[in-house]
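User: Predict the structure for this protein chain, please.
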Amino acid sequence: MPDATTGPITEGDAVQAKETLFADLVQGRAQQFQVPLYQRTYSWTEKQLGQLWTDILEQAELLESGEKASTHFLGPVVLAPSPQNEATFPRWLVVDGQQRLTTLSLALAAIRDHIVETVPDEAERIDEEYLINKRRNGSDHFRLLPTQADRAQFAAYVRGPLSERAAGGTVAAAYRFFRRKLVEAADPAAPQDVFRIEQAITSRLTLVAVTAERGDNVHRIFESLNNTGLKLSQADLLRNYLFMRLPTRGEHVYETYWLPLQESLSNDELEQLMWLQLVLNGDDRVRRQDLYAAQQQRFERGEAREAEIEAYIKELSRRGALFRLLLRPDRESNASVRAHLHRLNTWQAQVAYPALMLLLDRRERGELNSLDTARAMSYVESFLVRRMMCRAPTNNLNRIFQAVPGQLPLGMPVADGLHQLLSAENRFWPDDDELREKVRTAPFYKFGRGHQRKMVLQRLEESYEHPEPVDFAAAQLTIEHVMPQSPGDEWLRMLSEDVVDGERPEDLHSRLQHTLGNLTLTAVNSELSNHPFERKQDLLQGSHLEMNRRIAATERWGANEIRTRADELADRAIALWPAPLRGVGRAERSRDWNLAHQVLAALPHGTWTSYGDLAAFIGSGAQAVGNHLANTPGVANAYRVLTSEGKVSDGFRWTPQEVGGDVHARLTADGVHFTAGGAADPAQRLSADELALLVGGAEDDLGVDEESAAQHTPESQGELTHTNPFYLQLVAENSPERQFFRQLAKNSSSGTVEAVRALFDRWEEIGGSIVYVGNDPFISAGLRLGEAGAPGGGISPLSLLPSSGGGTAYVGLGYLAVQEPFTDRALRVEFLRQLNELEGVDLQEREPGPDPHFRLSVLEKDHSQELLFQALTWFRDCGERRGTA
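Assistant: Here is the predicted structure, written as structure tokens:
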């Protein structure tokens, strides 16, 4: 994109362009920035929000340190006088930049709400300075007025009250993102000042404000700013700069050093190498997007001549050979170093490249041998693996590793220095006690990324040193839950023998199902399925994996056996991944509670969770969760944690700092519905697995469709009209139906996806409808009978959740029990009986207890599809008879 101050806007366009800050743009007199109706709706996803949040935190750190560093350029904002402009109340059309202005406004609204209980005066100040026009009413009350499609949502989060209608969508998702990140930033182990964050947003993010006069050709300005030419990369810019500075040596340098380098690396890899060169040379603050400017400044500061430029490119070429070892570890000659590089490559540990490049560079210079290089790499691997296994946040990893070259202790061997550096205060490298406790209790299956979880299990299997090891590269292994995610009655009867203190088998299952002690690797996942343990024993006995043979040799598989295996695996993990040094200023950690606070802050409107669900999510106990919430003021949405029956706990009390009022009234205002018996609607309850989705607990890669949509929504695409073909495509790509099936395809086989599509088609053919609730990644589809207000309207036989256990169908018995004609228990029992005709389905009515459910994968068989359709047809007929009774 051309620079807004120097772009091709000349004759006939009397514009003014100046650099400004968000505070300077929106503060001062009452005014309003209006987004025209023809522009697209707010569309920033977590990808763009995450990058902005990283930039904000970086600027907050610079403010904290007092460094005189440059501000971060956010982009242009193009303004034109609104036709409704008044001398006493300026109104501006936002021709370009509405995504940026909306995002920053939502971030400030989140900060206001984050501090409103503790410092209400400051919350009011933020409101009046950035968000509202205090003495204006109606739509004029808002400093920013989004396009009509977003207006209700935006108004709800700026002024309230929150409604069902305003609770979903991208505006709501962005607001919840910032609420969650603010809780994360308040982690007592490494707190960040919320007012520094506010200052970073308002006075460290620069904008170029391009202001047109009345009568200017606004659309021509907009088109100029959104030139469709290909943008030069940082590597392109720096290459051009370098060879412009080599008037006599350019051809020799290009053929000798640059061309071989360019042919061996992609443009993105070359840019990454150039950035690493800066980091290794001591610049621990530079970001990749600022590479060109930073390197240019280094050269011009020293008035570099051709010899210095040539030396830089020669050194870049030398380090390029080392960088290729990170990308292609097979080229490494030392077996031990090669093994570590392979594992770090499998882990996708690009974040650790500064440290790894430093080690390879020092080895080549003769400052350490291959044995010590491998030892140092084991510290990097352990640091990453232990943090993932203990669910330490990843948001500071870039800063930690980028600082390694500049902070490595002097006067000691490199490997020992790296060990000490990574063990230092606030690096959060879990020690043996923490690792052992987390292996025993934490839901490992919901941590990190899928390939990382698989690598941990693979390393644990290799530690048995079986005489005939498995070829993991060739084996098609997946992670298997020994005790299944959807347990049948036999599994629950086994667990009932292990419960203590009145705990239900279902609660024990929820706490243990995703722990490492219950997980293994297998190539026969589909065959193991939800079978009883005796059947699984037979299949695991024939496995080539030593860990599976040991499981098969166990007589039963209950809570005690899972914990015993967890302890054994913890011993092996401690031996595989070295511990941090003791006594290097390690900080006490409270990040598990901080994670609980984050997920509660991110609860969508109209949802609740239970003490047991929240406990299973963080790897704690329900009683400990209750005690913590009861004694910790300021936890957002703490009152939305209920008992497993959907009731307010008898021991619930507002903390002295809170003025909460009636809990049921607060829950109702938050969109939580109650049954006739006074219990919260079970269909609105979020399980531990669903809580993990709210904070990216599973962190798996986005699907192709989702990634493609994200790439087509930045500001540079321009504002899209409702008749623009891309707008229509984008709407279709992000419709609730597409979100649902995108999630289902991500977690299920193509056969399951096609079976569900066929089921939806047939349900609609017989008069039913499909209702989608929520947003990606938390979205569900409900089968509904008839229209609202019509006979049978509102009755739902099944709700389908695509992201739970590979896709799951739930029967809301508690909901049906208050809906005619299914208040008749005999009809509910008959419906379950018909569903149990499906192969592999065994639903039981449990009061109290979770809703009966079954895997959607059972529908891959044509016979099961037909039986389910017959049951749904019977359900429809019952509902229609209700209307004629």
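The mean pLDDT is 81.
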